[in-house]
Design brief:
It is a single chain. The two termini are about 35 Å apart. The chain has a single domain, classed as Methylamine Dehydrogenase, Chain H (7 Propeller), CATH 2.130.10. The chain is mostly beta strands and about 325 residues long. The strands form eight sheets. Strands 9-8-5-4-1-10-11 form a seven-stranded antiparallel sheet, with no helix packed on it. The protein contains no helices and 28 strands. About 0% of the residues lie in helices and about 50% in strands.
C-alpha cells in the first residue's frame, strides 16, 4: 500500500463498486493511497444515479473509507491530517506542498517514507503497473506535468516532465491495456485561458501525442476556463476525458440561449492517434436540474458507456450511453 501526502483542498476519487457501475466517492479531506485510500467525507454528499437523486452520507456518517485492493470498506479512522504542505484557500487548481511518498503494509502500518520532491511537488494520481507504480502530478508551482515510475520499495526507475511555456496542471492519469500512459489536466501554455491538455505516452513515458481543446460553446476564449480532472483509457487505444467549461469573470455572454456563466460538464473522446472523435457538453437544465455542472471524474461502464461524477455544488452522477 502506498500513500501520497496531500493537503486539505486537494480532491480525491476513490473507486467503489455499486452494481455494474464503477462509481466514485468524492472527498475534500484525504490521504491518497496507492492500493488503498484513507479518506474523510467532510460534507453532505448526494448521488445522482439512474436519473434520480439519492440522499448520501452526512457529515460524520462515515468517519473514513479504506479501499483495500478488491473493494471499498467503511473503516472507523481519525480525520486525516496532512503531514506536509499547506492549504491555499483561494487556489482551486493545486496546493503548494512538497512531494512525499509513504509505504504502508496491508494493515496500514508504516513501512518506509521518503521525499519525491526533486521529481514532483504534488503527487495526484497513482496506478499500479505490474510490480511497480506510475505516479502523476505536478512540478514545483505546478509549472509542468510530472510523471515518475517507482518500485514498491521506493526506487525511482525514471521520471519525466511535460508541458509548455506557462502553467500546466496535471490531474488525470490512466493506463491502457498495452501499458500506454494517458495524462490530462489543463494548461495556459499557448492558450487564451485554461484549456484541456491531454497526452498519450508509451510505457516508458515517451510522448506519442498531445492535444489541447477548449471553449466548445464558442464564447470569447479569453474568459473561459476548461478544467480537466479525469481520464479513462478506452479499448480502442484512445481515451476519454472529463472536464468543466465556463467562466469565472464579470464577462457574460449568451449563445443560443446558453450563458457563459453557467458551467457545463465537458467530455472529449480521442482515438488512438490523438484525433478528436467527438466532444460534448451537458447542461443541468437538460436533466431537470439547476445550476452549474463540471465533470470531475469519469469511468467506463460494462454497457460500453461511461459514468461521470458531476460537481454541481452538491454531488451527482451523469450516465452516458454507449459510444
Amino acid at each position: 500500500m502506498i500513500r501520497i501526502n496531500c493537503t486539505l483542498h486537494q480532491f480525491l476519487w476513490q473507486n467503489m463498486r455499486i452494481g455494474i457501475f464503477n462509481i466514485k466517492i468524492f472527498t475534500k479531506r484525504c490521504y491518497e493511497v496507492g492500493l488503498g485510500v484513507i479518506a474523510h467525507i467532510s460534507a453532505q454528499a448526494h448521488v445522482r444515479h439512474a436519473g434520480r437523486l439519492v440522499q448520501g452520507a452526512r457529515r460524520g456518517a462515515w468517519r473514513g473509507v479504506a479501499h483495500l485492493g478488491g473493494g471499498a470498506v467503511p473503516h472507523p479512522i481519525r480525520e486525516a491530517v496532512p503531514a506536509v504542505g499547506k492549504s491555499i484557500d483561494d487556489n482551486t487548481f493545486f496546493t503548494y506542498a512538497q512531494g512525499h511518498i509513504t509505504f504502508l503494509d496491508n494493515n496500514g502500518d508504516l513501512l518506509s517514507s521518503q521525499s519525491i520532491n526533486s521529481y514532483m511537488s504534488q503527487g495526484y494520481r497513482i496506478k499500479q503497473a505490474g510490480l511497480d507504480y506510475i505516479i502523476a502530478g505536478q512540478t514545483e508551482d505546478a509549472l509542468e506535468y510530472s510523471l515518475i515510475k517507482i518500485t514498491a520499495t521506493g526506487t525511482i526507475l525514471w521520471n519525466k516532465t511535460y508541458g509548455g511555456n506557462s502553467e500546466d496542471h496535471c490531474f488525470g492519469l490512466d493506463l491502457g491495456h498495452d501499458g500506454s500512459i494517458f495524462l490530462t489536466g489543463h494548461t495556459l501554455s499557448g492558450t487564451a485561458n485554461w484549456d484541456t491538455y491531454t497526452m498519450k505516452l508509451d510505457s516508458n513515458g515517451v510522448k506519442l501525442w498531445e492535444q489541447v481543446a477548449g471553449n466548445p460553446r464558442g464564447f470569447n476564449p479569453q474568459w473561459i476556463h476548461d478544467e480537466t480532472w479525469g481520464i479513462k483509457a478506452t479499448c480502442d487505444g484512445g481515451c476519454i476525458i472529463s472536464a468543466g467549461t465556463g467562466d469565472e469573470y464579470p464577462y457574460t455572454a449568451q449563445i443560443g440561449g446558453v450563458s457563459s456563466d453557467q458551467w457545463e460538464a465537458y467530455i472529449v473522446k480521442y482515438d488512438a492517434n490523438g484525433n478528436m472523435e467527438w466532444q460534448a457538453t451537458y447542461n443541468s437544465n437538460d436533466f431537470g436540474q439547476v445550476g452549474s455542472w463540471a465533470a470531475e471524474d469519469i469511468d467506463l461502464t460494462s454497457d460500453g458507456g461511461a459514468i461521470i461524477a458531476v460537481d454541481n455544488g452538491q454531488f451527482g452522477f451523469l450516465k452516458l450511453a454507449p459510444f
